[in-house]
Amino acid sequence: MEPRARAGKNVGKMNFSYQELTQFLIAHGDSRQPLQETMRVLDEVLTEFIQGVSFEASRVAQLAGRQKVKYEDFQFAMRKSPVLLGKAAENKELREALEKQRKMFDEDEYTKEDVDGGTAAGNSSSGKGRKRK
């Protein structure tokens, strides 16, 4: 049996929701009511693709002597397809930009709380720690 073969528990079941697949098809020019057979085939194709790339990435990580799969392992698994590699890099950059913006937003909230009357750092008397003499 091939290691990346579909697990028996998923045979006959759809792995993606109807709404996700419908949105994907509409975004790529299909009608608003896609055929059920189209949905089933798309689900199988997407599942096979994700499993295949994940299997290759885990194989690369294993050959490198690691148990955890890193982004670089996925890059190596997709190295023969520049389109996929470019999309993966684009998604990584977008994710990093969003994380940076979220962090800045959270820091702005903490700063605003301190200005509005919150306790300043170091002046809190929560009872933790020892008193200095």
UniProtKB/TrEMBL annotation:
Pfam families: TFIID-18kDa. One of its GO terms (cellular component) is transcription factor TFIID complex. It is found in: Nucleus. Keywords: Initiation factor, Nucleus, Protein biosynthesis, Transcription, Transcription regulation. Gene3D superfamilies: Histone, subunit A. Residues 100-133 are annotated as: Disordered. One of its GO terms (biological process) is RNA polymerase II preinitiation complex assembly. GO terms for molecular function: protein heterodimerization activity; translation initiation factor activity. Belongs to the TAF13 family. This is Transcription initiation factor TFIID subunit 13.
